[in-house]
Each structure stands twice: as structure tokens, then as C-alpha cells.
Amino acid sequence: MTTNVSEERLDPATIHQSVQEYYGARARTQTSCCAPDCCGGDVNDAKVDLYDAGDVAGLPQEVANFSLGCGNPTAIAALKPGEVVVDLGSGGGLDVFLAARQVGPGGFVYGVDMTDDMLALARRNAAKAGAANVEFRKGHIEDLPLADASVDVILSNCVINLSPDKGQTLHEAFRVLRRGGRLAVSDIVIDGAWEDLPVTEGQVRTALSWAGCIAGALTVTQYRALLAEAGFEGIEIDLRHHYRREDLGQEIDQVVDSLSSAVVEQLVGRFASASITAYKR
Ligand SMILES: C[S@@+](CC[C@H](N)C(=O)[O-])C[C@H]1O[C@@H](n2cnc3c(N)ncnc32)[C@H](O)[C@@H]1O
Fold first, then answer.
1. Fewer CB within a 10 Å sphere, N or C end of the chain?
2. How far is CA 22 from the centre of its chain?
3. What is this structure's pTM?
4. In angstroms, what is the span from residue 185 Cα to ligand 1's centroid?
5. How many angstroms separate the alpha carbon of residue 73 from the centre of ligand 1?
6. Shortest CA distance to 115 belongs to which of 18, 236, 34?
7. How many structural domains are present in the chain?
8. Atom 13 of ligand 1: nearest residue by CA position
9. Residue 78 domain boundaries
10. How far is the centre of ligand 1, averaged over its atoms, from the C-alpha of 67 (Å)?
11. Is the minimum distance from the CB of 161 to ligand 1 under 6 angstroms?
């Protein structure tokens, strides 16, 4: 069954611009959330704690509380002292600071983000957190401002779904990784095949807002295929938390007018947060 939602195409520049405007405002007002209403919706309200108290202990509270993610990539990255790390779409910098502690003074962590206000916030947070082995660079994750084979680990928390060209983003991640390096990412995915959903891929891509992290979500099969196409091996995608309608908040409410409530109910349970790991061998 499909619906009559418009399938007009959104161009990459429009997606970048709307995502940038949304997250720029989040940075200016310092309003956090954690995942699909704003990447992960109110996952915290859904009683999913992304970080253990121990993970964020010692960070200033306003730094530790500013998360727009849907998981905890440093918890799955097994970072080692001395490693060089990049966090794609680093936001206020929380995962960068957690990674910086794990790699220690002999390691280094880059945060890459395209939004000026977010970069300014991350740099202020770095000063507050006293993080010396970090640097925030402006750039698109589809065109990383990093040299070939220059990092050991790619982190990202609820950002790759926002990219209008996820294939290119994963190729860039592969390019900057050293051989033997790894990717450890939290993201929102669709559990199931498009054929089993009550709407088409084009409808999801255009009816929902991209900033909310679900319009751009890939199915698990699509994610795996794009990682493999980029050159990654040993790919694992573990589903962590299936969202409920109340977790998706305004995001789904926006489309209730164009989709019947039965269709919305069938759709929402398919969105899940995932922990994704893969290797460059
Ligand atoms: C959902 S927030 C996640 C922020 C951070 N990872 C966290 O967990 O709090 C998305 C962030 O990625 C950035 N972003 C989104 N798309 C991007 C792209 N294509 N290139 C670079 N940055 C991007 C946004 O500016 C924003 O800071």
C-alpha cells in the first residue's frame, strides 16, 4: 500500500542548508535533545540513556548535557591511547571530548562539522573541558578536510543519515582511514525492506524533515551495501532501540495530515538506532 505524498526530489544543497539552519539554531540556543524529533527525538524522554554517568564524569555539566546524538560511539570504538580519531558531524563536541580522554595526550581527535555556530560552540566547550588534543575543522562529511590515510578511527553520532550523499560520505571515511583502521558509528536506520513499508523511499525522503534524522535513514541492507561499496569489511549493524511514535514527536505529527494514522503506526516502529562497526583491512 502506498500513499499520495509528493515525491519531488530534494537537491543536496537544499538538504545541507536546511540541516545547517536547524543545527545552527540548536547551537545558538544550546537546546539539546538526543535523537528523531532532532535526531533520535526525545530518546532521553523514552528513558534511553545514551551515556553512563561514568562516561561523562568530570566534564562541565553544560558540555556533558549537550548531545544531539542517538547512541554512544565511543562505547563501541574500543579506542586505544595514541590513536588519531575523527568525529563526523561533531556538534557541540561531546564525543570528541570523550574520545580525547580515551586516546590520551599521545592521541588526537578531530571534529568535523559544516555549521559555524556548532563549531563555535564546540571550540568554547573544548576550552571549558580543558581538552588540548582536539581540533574542530569546518567541512562537509562528503568532502572531509583531512589527508588520505591520516586517522585510525571514524566516529559519528546520528549524522550520516543527514548526508544527501551517504555513498560519498562513506568513501571519504574510507579514504581518510589508515589500513587496519575502523569505523564506529551510531545512526538511525530502518529495520526492514522498503517493499514492506506502507510508503515508498521517495515519500519518506520528501515528506519528513531531514534535520529530524529519519527522512534520510537507510535500511540496514542499504547501509551495509554502501559500506561494502566504499571498501569496508567486517561490517556489523546492531539495532539498539526501536522508536515509538511519542519518541518521534513533531517529526511524525508533521506528516499525519498526509499519511493516514494507520500508515504512520506501521511506519514508526521501523525506525531504530543502531551501532555500526566496520574495518579497512
Ligand atoms: C544530529 S547532530 C549530531 C551532533 C553530535 N554528533 C552529537 O551527537 O551531539 C548533527 C550534526 O552534524 C552536522 N552535520 C549534518 N550534516 C552534515 C554534513 N553533511 N557535513 C558536515 N556536518 C554535518 C550538523 O551541523 C550537526 O552539528
1. N
2. 15
3. 0.92
4. 13
5. 14
6. 18
7. 1
8. 89
9. 12-279
10. 11
11. no
